[in-house]
């Protein structure tokens, strides 16, 4: 059973461009979580999604950030008009149901130049 | 609101010495606690978790942690560390359902030969 997959592993964007981060949950998992890790800090919750639904987006910045988890395909975290402060590692986790242990992917390291 | 505090940002120890990484939490509701390890440029791997039951939790790689409700602590211990234990360790907590994990700031464990 493959683990949580994230791609790309490294992403470089210039200021003002868009960044798209993908997360494929473990097989059989329908719950996805996104976290952001700024340099020298712990992980901060961003958003929790189930298939086609956003359950909790209390950690998402109000502007430029959006997330989706369509019926088919991976979950996407989209950052529009990136700024230097968006440079961070973005981790995705998945679980089979609400309240179960979360399994983390390897992360996408976004660098904004 | 729940918070998790890791009291030490860095802990250097000698190989084969014991180690304790400290974690305190605050919560007024039922609590789930976790310890994750992050090796350089990798994702998070679950070491152990406390959901309910016995307050002494054993995890992988010889680690264990004790849930102490009166002191609101969940310290991680290992009786004898190895060079390969060098990594960043994160304590995390979740309320009922544990959908949204709150992470501590992380403790960098460095093992000296």
Could you give a quick summary of the protein structure above?
The complex is a heterodimer of chains A (113) and B (113). With 113 residues, chain A is mainly beta. Chain A has strands spanning 5-7, 10-13, 19-24, 31-37, 43-50, 53-56, 65-68, 75-79, 88-95, 103-104, 108-112.
Secondary-structure element order of chain B, N to C: EEEEEEEEEEEE
Query: What distance separates the N and C termini of chain A?
Result: 37 Å
Sheet with most strands of chain A: 7 strands, mixed
In percent terms, what proportion of residues of chain B is strand? over 45%
Q: Please give the number of β-strands of chain A.
A: 11
Structural class call of chain B reads mainly beta
Helix coverage percent of chain B: under 10%
Strand content of chain A: over 45%
- So what's the oligomer here? heterodimer
Please mark out the parts of chain B with pLDDT under 50 across 5 or more consecutive residues, or reply none.
none
Q: Which word captures the global form of chain B?
A: globular
Shape of chain A: globular
Number of helices of chain B: 0
Number of strands of chain B: 12
Largest sheet of chain B: 6 strands, mixed
Report the order of strands and helices of chain A.
EEEEEEEEEEE
> Pairing-aware structural class of the strands and helices of chain A?
mainly beta
Mean pLDDT of chain B, to the nearest integer, reads 90
> Ranges of chain A with pLDDT <50 over ≥5 residues?
none
